Predict the structure.
Amino acid sequence: MTALDDDLVQHAKAVAQTVRDTLSEWRARPSVSDEAAVRELLAYAARDVATSQR
């Protein structure tokens, strides 16, 4: 077993926080469909990873 690289850990933390925030928002404003929810989360995850690479 090996440790995760620091950048990967930061990406994972950012994405996990975004997922928590998004799920919380969906309680008030549910996604229109499962497919839309997946697309929304993937877009947020891509944004988080791209932002943290700067």
Notes: The chain has two helices and no strands. The CA atoms of residues 17 and 48 lie 10 Å apart. The two ends are 29 Å apart (CA to CA).
